[in-house]
Structures are given as structure tokens and as C-alpha cells.
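Board notes (copied after class):
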Amino acid sequence: MTALFRRIQPSKKLRITVRSIAQMLKIRENLIKRVESWANVVFVHHHKGGQFISYRRLEEWQNAIAHQIQTCPTLSQLSQLKISIQYDCRKFTKQYFQKSLDFLIEMCIERQDILEIWESSNCIAS
């Protein structure tokens, strides 16, 4: 379990919707019988049986990381978060969509720019 996974705590904090599972699996919502959030994966019961899905493949995971980025209060904490994200992405390459990675990288850059401006203006004001 990576630092990012422990930070997000998906089985406790993410609200996985049938809609998001159906979109990812490209099936209709009514074909999904039950969704179980386990410690490391989501187990989905659907019309063809059961299937394990990584939290990292879900939109809720991307949104949770985006929230972590947006609420990072300092550059040093953002830097630590970026390292955790990079490590997680390298370790679980096949579980991330490139589109999600691009989105998270862009968010990190934007947050870094905001924090640099904020921290430099605080230095000037002091």
C-alpha cells in the first residue's frame, strides 16, 4: 500500500457510484447488481459474474487526488504530494489512464503557481 493510497483511504472515504462503475465498464447501470468497497479494490457483481476493479481506475480516485492537490497549503506539502503521486503512478502504471495523469499534472502545475505567488507575496508583506 502506497503513501498516496493511505492518504486517500478509498475504502473509507470514496463514495463509489454505480454510475461511475457502469461508465468505466461500458455497461448499463441496471446490469450491476452490487458494488462492494474492499480495502484495496472494488468488487462489482454484474450480469456476467463478479469483477475486481482498482480504485485507481475510477473517477472518484482522480477527484480525491485533485482535492488533495487543491487543498495543499504549502509548496513543501505539494512537493511531497507530487512525489507520492509520481511513485504511485510508476508502481501502478497500468491502473492509471493517461488522461487522468495529464489532468493531475496540470492541476499540480496550477497549484504550484498559485502557492508560489501566495508565498512570495507573504514574503514581501513581512
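Comment from the instructor: Residues 9-55 form one domain. The longest strand covers residues 32-37.
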